[in-house]
Amino acid sequence: MIARAVGLLICIASGAWLSHAFLLIFFSSFNQALGAGLGALVWMIWYQIQISRVWHQLLNEQLPHPLSWAGIWNVWLEKFSKERRTAQQQLMQSNHRLQQFLSAIQASPNGVILLDSDSRIEWCNLTAAQQLGIDVTRDHMQHIAHLVRDPLFHLFLNGEVESHEIVIDSRQTRIDFTQRISFQIFPYGEG
Q1: Which of 127, 103, 99, 100 minimizes the C-alpha distance to 113?
Q2: Coil, strand or helix: which one is 176?
Q3: How many CB atoms lie within 10 A of CB 66?
Q4: Which residue, 39, 147, 160, 183, could crosslink 155 as a Cys pair with Cβ 3.0–4.6 Å?
Q5: Which of 124, 170, 131, 134 is nearest to 150 (CA)?
Q6: Are 151 and 132 in contact (CB under 8 A)?
Q7: What are the residue boundaries of the structural domains of the chain, listed by start?
Q8: Where are the alpha helices (DSSP H) in 23-72?
């Protein structure tokens, strides 16, 4: 901070001295003020360039070591870099736990479908996709009621059935074989 103030004063004094020495026209005090203003302008431009360099490095995540020209900015840059690294590590750990959780559900012999608060499919495992004839990629974010066409299921989904579980015929039912599917709803999260 002190270095910046000294730099500003040096620029102002240099501008005032240069204007006094080279612009010996009628108004020498005006020339000195003009020179001081130009010196301050030069300092502000130089300082803005330094800030732009720091900002560019922050945006491009290129902060391998302290910057020799940054002065007090190094303290903030170091703290920012440390917090960013911590946040990135936490995000990676969280993503890893989520993938482990989804892998465990994917391996389950039970069909599992995660719905949002509007009953749209956010995720389902392969067992549920097979049992209900759902295409995991095509039917992502489709309303479950459009894919499971059973009046009892619609009543159950809308909370109009007293039971916590219903059983309906599967889409894979054949004449010689009837497959039944049990549905249960377990609210989770905020929706």
Answers
A1: 127
A2: coil
A3: 12
A4: 160
A5: 170
A6: no
A7: 2-100, 108-184
A8: 28-59
CB 39 within 8 A of CB 20: no
Q: Are the C-beta atoms of residues 34 and 16 closer than 8 Å to each other?
A: no
Task: Read off the tokens for 17.
Answer: 């001295």
3-class DSSP assignment, residue 122: strand
Crossing angle of helices 28-59 and 2-22, rounded to 10°:
140
Residues of the chain with pLDDT under 70: 1-36, 38-39, 61-73, 171-174, 191
Class for domain 108-184, per CATH? alpha beta
Q: Which residue is associated with the tokens 């004839």? A: 133
Distance CA 70, CA 90 (A): 29
Distance CA 147, CA 132 (A): 8
What Å distances lie between residue 75 and 52, 54, 61, 63, 65, CA to CA? Answer: 17, 12, 16, 12, 12
Is residue 78 within 8 Å of 58, Cβ to Cβ? no
- The predicted pLDDT at position 12 comes to 58
